Amino acid sequence: MERYVIKGGTPLVGEVEISGAKNAALGILAASIMTDETVTIDNIPDVSDINALLQAIEGIGAYVERVDAHTVKINGSGIHDFSLDYEYIKKIRASYYLLGALLGKYKKAEVPLPGGCNIGTRPIDQHLKGFRALGADVRIEYGSISAEASRLEGTHLYFDVVSVGATINVMMAATMAEGTTIMENAAKEPHIVDLANFLNSMGANIKGAGTDVIRIKGVPRLHRAEYTVIPDQIEAGTFMFAAAATKGDVTVKNVIPKHLEAISSKLMEMGCQVEESDDAVRVYCKNKLRNTHIKTLPYPGFPTDMQPQISVVLSLANGTSIVTESIFENRFKYVDELARMGARIKVESNTAIITGVDRLSGAIVSSPDLRAGAALVIAGLAAEGFSVVEDIVYIKRGYERFDEKLRGLGAEIRQVTTDKEIRKFQLMSEAV
Ligand code: EPZ
Predict the structure, then answer these.
(1) 22-228, which class in CATH?
(2) Pocket flag, ligand 1, residue 125 (CB < 6 Å)
């Protein structure tokens, strides 16, 4: 089993290049099949979620050429299959974006129902509500969602819940509907804006992305495009909190500082210095951090995907902090692992009460999901002694070359598979 072995206690210092945004790239890659011409997308992150979606896109018959680790060419003209095999949705939930893309272009699609995952039940009722509002006949049977329409007609839709996935999926379906669609209570994340910009570069007519009202004038067809995905604000935030946890001095490069405002302001509230420039943010923290309170919210609020990471840092801050998870119902599974490193956290329903401690101690911990796994690596980097983080397959879904980038900042971390390698790492670390 692949694991990270970490020797904690070294402040992270230096610069780190941030990769393209996984959650923007997933929507953009799905949308790229909506034209019969070739689309070139670069700055995609080389992570397993992206590679899984590209396999799904190839699986329905599109032409996929991986130009390099971060660039792909896609041509959807050869698509012959409007139904996706279960194996793809099992690998990555976001394959359900092909529902909106195929329905939008071919007026028919069938995708297996995505299961829940480690952070909650993950319903998709708002996606289906949007497809039905556009005139599609949507049925759930035999474990699959099938959507079909003789024609899709623009509609005025109000989402009951702010949903990134539903906003993305319905935006794609509406892009080639007849007439105008207005989506109210839409998600405003940077990756929604990125998808809208990408679709517009293919000839779509989408206005208002980034606000809670998005207007889409349907177009009969889309054309070729070349597009660059925005930087990943969650990867950037993860490194910013790693700097804070290790009392380091880290500059995250190739970022859009505006996308990081909620994260930067919390770090400053906790006593870190944060300096912004055009495409970089520097975080340095020399003093003991102060406690604060967090409630995760849709963008531009504090992102739920940063909740485990800030909780690790707060477990080392002075005083008691309260973290409320308002988006997902089961996103504190890492707390038991963190407690094994000496953190003092009490979870009551969707709130964690964190009493800061002076130090964490290394331990063997297991990643319950993508962001919690990254947070446990941060804990290992801050802890005294050695830690082993298991089940890093989750982490590799959304973080490209995570250990390599951390080593570039001075971290003592290695990916290993055997106990012998762990012992060798420990001997080498102690020898230094
Ligand atoms: C996206 O998930 C991200 N995934 C998640 O990131 C992220 O945590 C989440 O947005 C919130 O920002 C991708 O982009 C691939 P939602 P998504 O629909 O679209 C409820 C990561 O770590 N809801 O915005 O599934 C839902 O239960 C992942 O990269 C409905 O009730 O999230 C949740 O409470 C983890 N009905 C809330 O809305 C629906 O039809 C927000 O979910 C859809 C959602």
Answers:
(1) alpha beta
(2) yes
